[in-house]
Specification:
about 400 residues, mainly alpha, about 0% strand
Length: about 400
């Protein structure tokens, strides 16, 4: 059983080392693709760094089991790669979910891991190499006169767990802020990055605690193997999740608003133009039908209406009692109902009609419909005080 358990453990560690490295190459290819947008290039480069650090972190874990003496010579690099994996993963989420253009990622996130790794590296020069090897080979059972250093070498998993927890909570906070902001920015329910970002958070938060359990709870080979193999598999899935969603550009970066040209002579007219009224707004929706654009963003509508994103979002919320995404998708549902009742489109299948109504995918349509049905049920039980949409003919 022990030999089989060791083989399974080492095989999954090797896979966890190789797969992120392969994903890193994919991201580098994407980065050098001349057709990629600048934002996509930046994200691809960050993700390549995430995968590089992840690959080396798991590689050093593999070395820990296979070649303790080599691990002694390189263990400070394990600290650096593991810490930087957490930092770069947070930096990735930070860039995708940034809601304000003046938000800056602090340099301290990169400096602290470097100081920790450097401290471990310098400290190791004061400990005889054979003592370090003995500590690693004994898995912490032999300390000798170097108990403090032995404790450091055998508490790596706990140290990484603390670091992982801190950065997972930072990631969670960023996603929560982004979730609300993106609903007032994009109306594409079919390609929402929030879902996979939450899954990324859960995988990040759950990986190292399982390793901690495997290290500190029980010596049964089967039990120990389970709690070391499972987080490794989760890490592999995490790499695949990130690689896929970044490759297909399943993320939306909130872009700054387009500047509305204003000069001294037209300042008063511009001020009046910003004051949307319901009649003007609904006439624009009827005539232009911007909701037919599946990738519609509020900044585009704001520029068309000569206003800003903040004002338009507040206007929709006040007049119709919903955010930008909900409002646009309700209009798409009305457009779809009109298309379905029009004999001209009798030959169109469901997906074609859904896309013609402005939805990017059938999945996005179903999500919108299910959400609308639930909200309608709630309103029947508890009548809303908000104004009606006032756009019953907006999709006609």
């Amino acid at each position: 059983m022990t030999d089989t358990s060791e083989l399974i453990k080492l095989t999954t560690l090797a896979a966890a080392s190789f797969i992120p490295l392969f994903c890193c190459l994919v991201m580098l290819i994407s980065y050098f693709d001349v057709h990629s947008k600048e934002q996509s290039k930046t994200v691809s480069l960050i993700v390549a760094g995430v995968f590089f650090c992840s690959s080396f972190s798991w590689f050093f874990t593999l070395i820990y089991f296979l070649h303790p003496k080599l691990f002694v010579a390189t263990h400070s690099l394990m600290y650096l790669s593991t810490f930087y994996f957490e930092v770069l993963l947070y930096y990735l989420v930070f860039r995708i979910t940034r809601t304000k253009t003046d938000d800056r990622f602090g340099c301290v996130h990169f400096i602290v891991p470097l100081l920790i790794a450097a401290s471990v590296f310098i400290w190791s020069f004061f400990i005889p190499f054979d003592i370090q090897s003995t500590i690693i080979e004994s898995r912490g059972k032999i300390y000798g006169d170097y108990k403090l250093y032995g404790l450091l070498m055998t508490s790596k998993t706990f140290t990484f767990f603390v670091y992982n927890t801190i950065y997972s909570l930072l990631i969670f906070r960023k996603i929560r802020c982004y979730q609300k902001a993106i609903q007032d920015y994009s109306a594409d329910e079919g390609h929402s990055p929030v879902r996979w970002l939450y899954l990324l958070f859960y995988l990040s938060l759950g990986t190292l605690p399982l390793l901690l359990l495997g290290s500190y709870l029980g010596k049964n080979p089967l039990f120990n193997t389970f709690f070391q193999v499972l987080p490794t598999i989760m890490a592999i899935f995490q790499s695949i999740l990130i690689c896929y969603n970044v490759t297909v550009v399943n993320f939306k970066i909130i872009e700054p608003e387009q500047t509305i040209p204003v000069n001294d002579s037209t300042a008063e007219k511009d001020h009046m133009a910003r004051k949307l009224d319901k009649e003007k707004f609904e006439r624009y929706m009827r005539q232009k039908k911007p909701y037919l654009n599946s990738d519609l963003r509020i900044t585009e509508m704001a520029a068309e209406l000569i206003t800003n994103r903040t004002y338009l979002s507040a206007f929709i919320n006040q007049e119709y009692g919903m955010n930008f995404s909900s409002y646009i998708n309700r209009l798409r549902l009305k457009e779809l109902a009109n298309l379905q009742s029009n004999p001209k489109y009798a030959e169109f299948n469901g997906l074609e009609l859904v896309q013609k109504a402005g939805f990017s995918s059938y999945r996005g349509y179903l999500r919108t419909k299910n959400t609308t049905d639930r909200e309608t049920t709630v309103r029947i039980k508890q009548p809303s005080t908000h104004n009606s949409m006032g756009t019953s003919d907006a999709a006609d």
